[in-house]
# Entry
Amino acid sequence: MTEVVAALIWDGDRFLICQRPAHKARGLLWEYVGGKVEAGETKQEALIRECKEELDVTITVGDVFMDVVHEYPDITVHLTLFHAKITEGTIRLLEHNAVAWITPAEIPDYSFCPADEDINERIMKEYHKP
# Structure
């Protein structure tokens, strides 16, 4: 199983999502910024590194929002989503096709990676204000 980390980054009532590059697995689907944990890294260290590599921002990592295990045809991932804040830098697209700041109510308007479905349900349940 592959350990993967991602960041739930809020700006007011909106949170950050990123669109995967077309040439990668699950290309053009939306996800939370993050990536694989490398040998010798903590999950928090991996998330800080991934956010710097993919968006050129420095983050502080907070508590775990939730974690899920998902089996794709090519890989099984244990995804841990952390609350995080951007503390330095302006988002640059170094890896992703696009980024968007969305509200929980807008989640259904985007096609997310299947591993994010349970996470999105919880976000809509806990943060959606009708």
